[in-house]
């Protein structure tokens, strides 16, 4: 499996980096990627994933991500269903940071802090579709201007969603600062329920997270700056176990960044590494996630509350899980965390690969 992943990564990073800036699609539309009985729907509003349909162990097809019935509902969304999050995903404490001696003030859209890029993040803008090949991939681009949501510098951003091999979805995110250094931390905020989006809670899903540390947070979910070993604690998923198996000790559910146990190459760059594996015993569906980022936010949809979804569904607490590969939250204010600052002439590169099977 590892050799297949590296082959996929090579083709993504080398073979598909040259995109045509055709700008042929300017309206808000929905695009479907289909290969066999595996399909993904995406809209260029927020570069948002609308659905992921795949078979269970008996061949029954289900949509395994939460979402809304219409694209218009995403415009007033507060859950970030399926969105491409940026310029900086997750939280920035006190809605401010300092870079090269200059202080920057951001929108305080989450209890005095900045969440997921501010009040109008990348999930709330219209992206331009560069290329679309229905059985292969779609690429989308967005130009974030200097000062947008308080962040310095103009940034050219694009994302590619690709069907690779059998029942694999790869997401490639690339961002290039054009004139000033700036923090960049993109994430895909997809809510998963492998039994089907309208099948109840995910507490019986079995999860394994390949991270032995977390970045603990305060009451407002801002990292303290510490990196904490969690082996033997309720946060320990180094061996597979049910998501809800220790919920009595985590009464508010999980919403925490895991430090993935990864290796770097001789240049200090992260290898693509296995982040997590999730199995739903009822449907038999299994999802493996690989990435090149050092952290992953594990979130058990603690804040869902009778949210009206697609196909007449009503989503309640713990009805989905999120695994958002990322840099560490609030890295701009913690110098011991891996830096998210990208310089002009450099590229931010973020790769995610989902592999779906049944067991």
The biggest sheet amounts to: 9 strands, antiparallel
Number of strands: 28
Structural class: mainly beta
String of helices and strands: HEEEEEEEEEEEEEEEEEEEEEEEEEEEE
Protein name: Aldose 1-epimerase
InterPro entries: Aldose_1-epimerase, Aldose_1/G6P_1-epimerase, Gal_mutarotase_sf_dom, Galactose_mutarotase-like, GH-type_carb-bd
Pfam family, one: Aldose_epim
Family: Belongs to the aldose epimerase family.
Key structural traits:
5-stranded antiparallel β-sheet; mainly beta; 359 residues; 9-stranded antiparallel β-sheet; 1 helix; single chain
Please characterize this protein's 3D structure.
The protein has one helix at 2-15; strands spanning 30-35, 38-43, 48-55, 61-63, 83-85, 91-92, 96-99, 102-105, 114-115, 128-133, 137-144, 155-163, 168-177, 182-183, 187-189, 206-209, 213-214, 228-229, 241-242, 255-259, 273-279, 285-291, 295-299, 307-308, 314-315, 322-326, 341-342, 348-358. With 359 residues, it is mainly beta. The strands form 8 sheets. It has a 9-stranded antiparallel β-sheet with strand order 10-11-12-13-28-22-21-16-19, covered by helices on one side. It has a 5-stranded antiparallel β-sheet with strand order 18-17-20-23-26, with no helix packed on it. The longest helix is centred in the N-terminal third of the chain and has 14 residues, at 2-15.
Quick structural gist:
This protein is mostly beta strands and 359 residues long. The protein is built from one helix and 28 strands.
Write the layout of secondary structure elements.
Layout: H1 2-15, E1 30-35, E2 38-43, E3 48-55, E4 61-63, E5 83-85, E6 91-92, E7 96-99, E8 102-105, E9 114-115, E10 128-133, E11 137-144, E12 155-163, E13 168-177, E14 182-183, E15 187-189, E16 206-209, E17 213-214, E18 228-229, E19 241-242, E20 255-259, E21 273-279, E22 285-291, E23 295-299, E24 307-308, E25 314-315, E26 322-326, E27 341-342, E28 348-358
């Amino acid at each position: 499996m590892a050799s297949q992943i590296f082959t996929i990564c090579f083709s993504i990073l080398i073979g598909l980096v040259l995109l045509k800036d055709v700008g042929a699609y300017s309206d808000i539309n929905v695009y479907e990627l289909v290969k066999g009985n595996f399909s993904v729907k995406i809209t260029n509003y927020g570069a948002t994933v609308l659905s992921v349909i795949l078979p269970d162990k008996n061949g029954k097809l289900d949509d395994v991500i939460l979402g809304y019935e219409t694209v218009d509902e995403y415009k007033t969304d507060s859950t970030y269903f399926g969105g491409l999050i940026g310029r900086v995903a997750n939280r920035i404490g006190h809605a401010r940071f300092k870079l090269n001696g200059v202080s920057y003030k951001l929108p305080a859209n989450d209890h005095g802090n900045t969440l997921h890029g501010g009040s109008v993040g990348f999930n709330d803008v219209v992206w331009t579709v560069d290329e679309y090949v229905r059985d292969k991939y779609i690429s989308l681009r967005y130009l974030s201007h200097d000062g947008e949501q308080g962040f310095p510098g103009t940034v050219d951003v694009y994302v590619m969603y690709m069907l690779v091999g059998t029942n694999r979805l790869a997401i490639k995110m690339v961002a290039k600062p054009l004139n000033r250094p700036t923090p960049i931390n993109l994430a895909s905020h997809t809510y998963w329920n492998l039994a089907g989006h309208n099948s109840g809670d995910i507490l019986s899903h079995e999860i394994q997270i390949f991270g032995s540390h977390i970045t603990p947070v305060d009451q407002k979910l801002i990292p303290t700056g510490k990196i904490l070993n969690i082996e033997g604690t309720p946060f320990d998923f180094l061996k597979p176990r049910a998501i809800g198996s220790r919920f009595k000790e985590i009464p508010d559910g999980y919403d925490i960044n895991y430090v993935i146990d990864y290796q770097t190459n001789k240049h200090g760059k992260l290898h693509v590494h296995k982040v997590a594996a999730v199995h739903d015993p009822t449907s038999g569906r299994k999802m493996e996630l690989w990435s090149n980022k050092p952290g992953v936010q594990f979130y058990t949809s603690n804040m869902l509350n009778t949210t009206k979804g697609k196909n007449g569904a009503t989503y309640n607490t713990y009805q989905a899980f999120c695994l958002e590969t990322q840099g560490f939250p609030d890295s701009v204010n913690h110098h011991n965390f891996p830096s998210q600052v990208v310089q002009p002439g450099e590229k931010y590169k973020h790769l995610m690969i989902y592999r779906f099977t049944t067991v």
